[in-house]
Specification:
single chain; 125 residues
Length: 125
């Protein structure tokens, strides 16, 4: 049985996938805009995440014939359906996040980025 968040087709998976989806839920974004919004993500990690999400048909990629080529990413219908999951994750984190033992938390900056991204999704509901 697949585990939620696994990297099999049909599941977002990956360390950065949920944050990428949260940013794209606010509207289409170009590669560099995503990279800046998700700092400190590496170019390789973002490229790999976007390829996986595109392969899973959660996001779409549109290239524009400019010099250099402009590429824009956006949520597909499948990706838009996933917004409800992100909203529920945010609600769960609001309820239970502060009761976790400090020794088991990831870095403060990473938590803040997750909270802000999930909060943005929740506010769009």
């Amino acid at each position: 049985m697949p585990v939620a968040g696994s990297r099999s087709a049909g599941h977002p998976g990956g360390k950065w996938s949920f944050l990428v989806l949260a940013k794209l839920s606010l509207g289409p974004r170009r590669f560099n805009a995503l990279r800046k919004a998700l700092d400190p993500i590496s170019t390789k990690a973002l490229t790999d995440t976007l390829r996986h999400l595109e392969h899973s048909q959660v996001i779409g990629r549109q290239a524009f014939p400019t010099v250099p080529v402009t590429v824009e990413y956006s949520l597909t219908e499948k990706g838009k359906d996933f917004q409800a999951v992100l909203g529920e994750m945010y609600s769960w984190a609001q309820k239970w996040g502060s009761s976790q033992d400090e020794s088991h938390r990831s870095s403060q900056a990473s938590q803040e980025a997750n909270r802000v991204s999930l909060q943005e999704v929740q506010e769009r509901k």
